Amino acid sequence: MEAIEVTAEFDRKGRVTPLSFKWRDHLYTVTSTGRQWEAEDERHVLVMAAGDKVFHLCFVRDKGYWYLIPPVGYGTNLMA
Asked: Domain residues for 30?
């Protein structure tokens, strides 16, 4: 997991809508939000960014931090 900056909206039911995120000096605009789930004190969200790239974002509530979980098989080169 790698810490990232995320701009997001939270509703009263706990659902989150990420709008954009910054990862490795690149700003990604979220074009759609997919599945969301809870795991312990974390909120996981699958998002799609421009170029049909899917990302797994994780918000850790007690720390107030967002993380990016790289997809299996992508290594560290998601921007290719």
From this structure: 2-69
